[in-house]
Specification:
With 996 residues, the protein is of the alpha+beta class. It is 53% helix and 8% strand. The protein has 35 helices and 15 strands. The strands form four sheets. The chain has a five-stranded mixed beta sheet. A hairpin with a 4-residue loop joins β7 and β8. α16 packs antiparallel against α17 (555-567) and α29 packs antiparallel against α31. It is globular and about 95 Å long.
């Protein structure tokens, strides 16, 4: 605004907003407010409403960046659309024609209005849930470069995340490229679609372009083989300028988020594309909120669901119903898939990822009749399906034999030989399972055995015998009777159909899974003892002690077992590893009873792992999948001409723990990428298991599998659409987990035991997975860090509640807590960081936050005695947080020391290997060094500086880590500095130092 006096519309709008949601804050040309339509509940929100004045049109512009309509925003503050304008002529005075036409009493329903009503979504974006206060600093987690059509960088969007009391939140910012300085600087840039060069290339080739919401979904689409784009600024920031870049595209598919803002955005985007592209499809995820959820749940691109009323080829619910019941080739000639014309089949969206489901079986109590009944129904349907599969296999085999006999004796003989081999293989599998004990078999193993035995029972005596045993086992464990003669499921009697019986069977299955865990842990502990030098008599006693622990597992029993091992001369390393196995595989999450807390300490798997002298899992093996991923990201940055310093730093840190041979392979690949950025390179270690990815699949399977069984049980039909969809998704995750378990490289045998046990837990109905899925140091350090964060957060939360209770007493003025909320929150945030080990008590005190809170309390009228009481409480709480933070920092330092030891060992090994190669001062070594530096993708100036620095060294830097005497180092790193800088208790003796 240029005038001194605010225009009338501006004053009206801003005054109404301030009275409803409080004052706004300037952000460039806009003033930001909380949206009164969906953020007007009085809680803390990230403002999503922008207000600015348009001098040319003499009006105030209001825009909710979360997607609320202007009418809804203005209605929430008691205004109308006409209040946005300044030039309004008075009709009654007869001074000419009115500047505005009267609005109809009710606005005609738009496409998005009808789509939202059909989908059961609210017309206004719901208020975001209150996540509470922030408990961690904002951390940048990713950057997304935006390129112009010629490939030059216009700017980038950065994504940052933070942890709040009740979940994580994200935020985004923009930086523009300054060609003069050659650096990014804060600020926006011209409106460009994300990945514009790839989009233009796809349009030129006549391909399909997908418009999604957010850069993360773009990368998910690219990983699925699509060309996708989005825009900066959220759901409502797509403009006609973005659409102009898509002119000439044959097909554009808009993938809308499954929420109000997503539907509104899809409607706007489709309007801006009118007349520019050949055809537009509007679809949504079959499961979850967005495209990433859709793909993570195992769906294909062809399974995206058209949105009635928004998708031009799916005008209403009737069309969706037709799409479900009609073959794909007959539904439509338009497809959202990039490769063909058949339409995407419609269908309802499962709600299990959109909201918390009350149907998820969290426990196995026989009091939950509906869950138990559904489980029983599912097991009956499951076994019926298995026996039907077996019957079809037998019929197929018999038909093949009959056809072969009709053709020739030779073919019949060959078929007989093949069937004999198959029968022998089946008999071996069945014998092996029976010898191990059917009671110890998992549900998957029993299912496979039922199919084998039922299919071969007429042609194999072994199969017939095991079929009888399986019939008894299935009835005992799942309450389902199978006729061993016919192989068919016998209908349930009234007594067998009771929910109480089904609940008891569910509980028994859960107990059986827990017993299988203990048996696996017992096996591993016996193997550890067997490999020691303890004499056979003592070993027998130790085996008996391990059996005693297995039969009655508890923290107290584990402590007693450790004492027995110590008395019998078992080495400390073996004792520690046995305790780790007990709590990692045998009893994860074991809790010490309150009565035993004084005598027994809880055993944490991460604590036992830290005590081991070296890592169970070689860090160089664990890091390989991440190095492959970093190399792929490095190639993307090089190909775009974007800065690579951050990626190169991450690569350098990652490969430091690898063997010299693997480090050389990674550096060679980096050099090859620098020379040929557009060439396709295969992964260096494609068969190694990515633990982060596998953990995600395991947790997704733990969510999907029990709900799929519950849905089938409730529907009474395994072919029910919702149940079948969930079971397909669960099966995809299960297949990936099984593949990693059987053929994935880099997993320790203990980790394979843990994954197998988790799969069996899930089959028993558990949806929670252990905190520690893997036994590598990086995963364990992450578990420890999460635990420290939770402890710090809980401690800070309890301290804040106590401080607020003091300030709510009669001694404090009314409303003190509300007035001092900001200052008290800063104190608690700082104490949380202190408890996490991020800083010391001195650092905390230097912030002066306690004094700021004291000044605020004094300003609002809190008497001095109460201020002193609050200050004493916060001092005590800070001391507790500092103590917890020291413990967290010691643990983090221990993990860092273990990693550093590996880095040093690999550096020494590399130096030793290099000693057999070119001389240090020879031209060959310097040529190799220059090659490695160039492989890192640095500039020519950086290469010259690095080579100049190297020329000034008389000996290699790695020589500093060698022991001149050639023996083992007898002091820990840093001991010399500690000895010279710190005094002993009395300032005397060998510990007397030079410090203070």
């Amino acid at each position: 605004m240029t005038s001194q006096q605010p225009p009338g519309s501006w004053e009206r709008i801003t005054t109404a907003l301030e009275s409803k949601v409080g004052p706004g804050r300037r952000s460039g040309a806009w003033t930001q407010y909380c949206c009164p339509s969906h953020e007007g509940d009085g809680r803390a929100h990230k403002p999503s409403l922008g207000v600015k004045y348009d001098d040319r049109q003499h009006r105030t512009v209001v825009r909710c960046f979360a997607g609320c309509e202007n009418e809804h925003v203005l209605e929430a503050v008691g205004l109308e659309v006409r209040d946005l304008f300044d030039r309004r002529l008075d009709r009654a005075a007869g001074r000419g024609r009115s500047a505005y036409r009267p609005r109809p009493a009710q606005r005609p329903a738009s496409r998005s209005d009808r789509a939202l009503e059909a989908a059961g979504l609210p017309p206004k974006q719901p208020t975001r849930p209150d996540l509470g206060r922030r408990v961690s600093p904002w951390k940048q987690v990713d950057t997304y470069p935006y390129l112009r059509a010629d490939g030059t960088v216009a700017g980038e969007v950065f994504r940052k995340e933070a942890q709040f009391e009740r979940g994580r939140d994200k935020d985004f910012g923009q930086r523009r490229w300054n060609p003069a300085s050659g650096e990014m600087e804060p600020g926006g840039f011209e409106p460009l679609p994300y990945q514009l060069p790839q989009v233009l290339e796809t349009i030129a080739e006549g391909g399909v372009v997908y418009i999604v919401e957010g850069e993360k979904d773009v990368h998910s689409a690219v990983a699925a083989g699509l060309t996708a784009t989005t825009n900066v600024g959220g759901a409502v920031a797509w403009t006609a300028e973005h659409s102009q870049w898509l002119q000439g595209a044959g097909t554009v598919v808009i993938v809308a988020d499954h929420d109000t803002a997503g539907y509104r955005r899809a409607d706007r985007v489709m309007s801006t594309l009118s007349g520019l592209v050949g055809r537009v499809r509007v679809v949504q995820a079959a499961t979850g909120k967005d495209l990433t959820d859709h793909l993570m749940c195992g769906h294909d691109i062809s399974e995206l669901v058209p949105i009635p009323h928004l998708d031009p080829y799916t005008p209403g619910p009737a069309a969706v119903a037709a799409a479900v019941s009609t073959p794909a080739a007959e539904t439509s000639a338009v497809s959202a898939a990039p490769s063909a014309d058949p339409a995407i089949s419609g269908g309802s969206v499962p709600e299990y990822l959109l909201a918390t489901s009350g149907d998820v079986p969290q426990t196995h109590s026989d009091e939950v009749d509906s869950i138990s009944g559904s489980w029983s129904t599912f097991m009956r349907l499951f076994m019926t399906q298995l026996t039907e599969m077996a019957r079809k296999q037998a019929e197929k085999r018999e038909h093949a034999a009959r056809v072969a006999r009709e053709k020739s004796e030779r073919e019949a003989e060959e078929l007989a030989i093949r069937h004999a081999a198959e029968r022998a293989a089946v008999e071996v599998r069945l014998r092996k399972l029976a010898e191990a004990g059917l009671d110890n078999a998992s549900r998957t193993q029993l299912a496979e055995a039922v199919v084998d035995a039922a299919a071969w029972r007429e042609d194999s005596q072994v199969a017939a015998q095991v079929m009888t045993q399986l019939s008894h086992q299935v009835q005992q464990r799942f309450g389902v009777r199978i006729d061993p003669v016919t192989g068919e499921v016998i209908p349930a009697t009234a007594a067998e159909a009771t929910a109480g019986l089904a609940g008891a069977l569910m509980g028994a299955e859960s107990d059986r899974a827990a017993a299988a865990r203990l048996a696996t842990a017992q096996k591993r502990m016996v193997e550890l003892v067997a490999d020691t030098a303890v004499d056979d008599d003592r070993k027998a006693e130790l085996y008996a002690a391990i059996e005693t622990w297995r039969a009655h597992p508890s923290a107290k029993a584990l402590t007693e077992l450790t004492k027995v091992m110590d008395d019998k001369g078992v080495p400390e390393k073996v004792r520690t590893q046995a305790r780790f196995v007990a709590v990692y595989i045998g009893r994860p999450g074991d809790v010490v009873p309150m009565a035993d807390l004084a005598q027994i300490r809880a055993v944490q798997p991460t604590a036992e792992l830290r005590k081991l002298p070296e890592a169970l899992v070689d860090p160089g093996e664990e890091v390989k999948p991440r190095v492959d991923e970093l190399l792929a990201r490095f190639q993307d940055r090089v190909k775009l001409g974007a800065p690579t310093e951050s990626i190169r730093t991450q690569l350098s840190e990652a490969i430091a723990v690898m063997t010299p041979e693997d480090q050389a392979a990674a550096r060679d690949r980096g050099l090859a990428i620098t020379k040929a950025p557009t060439q396709e390179f295969p992964a260096l270690w494609p068969d190694h298991v990515d633990r982060d990815e596998l953990a995600t699949k395991i947790r997704m399977y733990a969510t999907l599998a029990p709900q799929a069984e519950l849905a089938a049980g409730k529907a009474g039909d395994l072919d029910d659409a919702a149940a079948a969809g969930l079971m397909r998704q669960a099966a995809k995750h299960r297949g990936a987990i099984t593949k990693a378990l059987k053929s994935g490289k880099g997993l320790h045998e203990y980790e394979r035991d843990q994954i197998s046990a988790v799969l069996r837990d899930i089959e028993a109905g558990k949806t929670q997975t252990p905190d520690m899925l893997f036994a590598d140091d990086r995963s364990a350090a992450a578990v420890d860090a999460d635990r420290a964060t939770h402890i710090a957060r809980d401690t800070s939360y309890a301290s804040r509640r106590q401080a607020e209770q003091l300030l709510k007493s009669n001694m404090a003025p009314e409303g003190t807590v509300r007035r001092a909320r900001t200052e008290l929150g800063r104190v608690m945030d700082a104490q949380t960081e202190l408890g996490r080990g991020h800083g010391t008590l001195s650092d905390y005190e230097r912030l002066g936050l306690d004094q700021q809170l004291g000044a605020k309390l004094a300003a609002v009228g809190v008497p001095e005695p109460l201020r002193n009481k609050v200050a004493n409480h916060l001092d005590s709480a800070a001391g507790e947080s500092a103590s917890a933070g020291k413990s967290a920092q010691r643990i983090a330092d221990r993990w860092a020391q273990r990693r550093d030891a590996v880095v040093v060992a690999r550096s020494v090994a590399g130096a030793a290997a290099g000693a057999a190669g070119p001389d240090y001062d020879g031209p060959e070594r310097r040529a190799d060094l220059e090659r490695d530096v160039r492989a890192a993708g640095v500039s020519e100036d950086s290469v010259a500086q690095r080579m100049a620095a190297d020329a000034g060294r008389a000996r290699p830097p790695s020589a500093a880590v060698r022991n001149a005497r050639g023996g083992q180092r007898r002091t820990s790193p840093g001991a010399g500095v500690s000895r010279t800088q710190h005094r002993g208790r009395n300032g005397r003796g060998p510990e007397k130092g030079l410090g203070r």
